[in-house]
Write a structure and sequence with these properties.
By secondary structure, the protein is an alpha/beta fold. The chain has 11 helices and 14 strands.
Length: about 280
């Protein structure tokens, strides 16, 4: 018999959100029904807290957000940080200093906000992603002249760093391999692709899976009562930790292989289908 699910963790882009960046009505209805039945629902994302559609998520009963690939956990809708696991300041400043000499876009996640440098802003339009994401980046970044100086002066800790690359005419991504080679020299951080051929790095050992484990313990849920849904590489640790791992039909093959069940795609309300099946026992 399937264990009773008490905590659901949902990736956002490509999972909870359709390709227009919206939460479909079927998802809204079933998640509201689940939360009203006492099931805790969290989004688990590479995004920072400030990038979340707080009102939209809160309306359907979502009360927690695992952000920055697990480096921060926040409560909705008041934005209270209940957990953070940040990168060593000296290490991240050293890496940022080297990124400055490369023709790549980079930004940092600090206390739920995202900071970038004006010098890399022109690269945004050259990044291989939907125009809506370009606009999202312009809208949500806080621009400071020098990120390492900002970190040192403010005394703030960095949750995650994102690096994006311009698409070249030959189909390769400018500086992507060189950046991976750079990060390979720092065992204190780990990196992966969060989407659109980028690199995202956190402190080594920090994942969406560690964020899920923290949240389950915090709210008194056993890991055997957890379910996770995802589609990308950064979802794998969360899917491995959850009792029930659900991959979207549009997920990477590696994600499907690692999961217990493959649901419908994000364009076909795959999250709603999975919740209906495994929480309410309806096929």
């Amino acid at each position: 018999m399937m264990n009773e699910i008490k905590l659901i963790a949902l990736d956002m882009d490509g999972t909870l959100f359709n390709n227009q960046g919206e939460i479909a009505e079927k998802e809204r209805e079933i998640l509201k029904k689940a939360t009203e039945a006492g099931v805790a629902v969290a989004v688990a994302t590479g995004r920072a807290y400030s990038e979340l559609p707080i009102e939209m998520l809160s309306e359907i009963g979502i009360r927690y957000a695992i952000t920055g690939n697990g480096s921060g956990v926040y409560r909705l809708p008041d934005g209270l940080n209940i957990y953070s696991d940040c990168i060593d300041t000296e290490v991240v400043c050293e890496i940022l200093g080297k990124l400055k000499r490369m023709d790549v876009y980079y930004d940092i996640y600090v206390e739920g906000k995202v900071y970038g440098e004006p010098s890399v802003e022109p690269l945004i339009r050259r990044m291989d992603m939907p125009e809506a994401l370009h606009e999202h980046i312009f809208r949500t970044r806080n621009w400071v002249e020098d990120l390492p100086a900002f970190i040192k002066k403010s005394g703030k800790n960095v949750e995650k760093t994102t690096i994006n690359f311009a698409l070249l005419e030959d189909g390769t991504y400018q500086g992507r391999e060189e950046t991976a080679h750079l990060l390979d020299h720092y065992p204190q951080v780990q990196y992966l692709c969060g989407g659109y051929h980028n690199w995202e790095f956190t402190r080594t050992g920090v994942t969406k899976g560690t964020g899920l484990k923290f949240l389950a313990e915090r709210i008194g849920v056993q890991m055997t009562q957890t379910m996770a849904c995802g589609d990308s590489e950064n979802d794998l640790p969360m899917l491995e930790e959850a009792y029930l791992a659900v991959a979207m039909e549009n997920a990477m093959e590696e994600v499907k292989t690692a999961s217990d069940f493959v649901t419908l795609s994000n364009e076909e309300s795959g999250v709603a289908y999975a919740v209906n099946r495994f929480v309410f026992g309806k096929v």
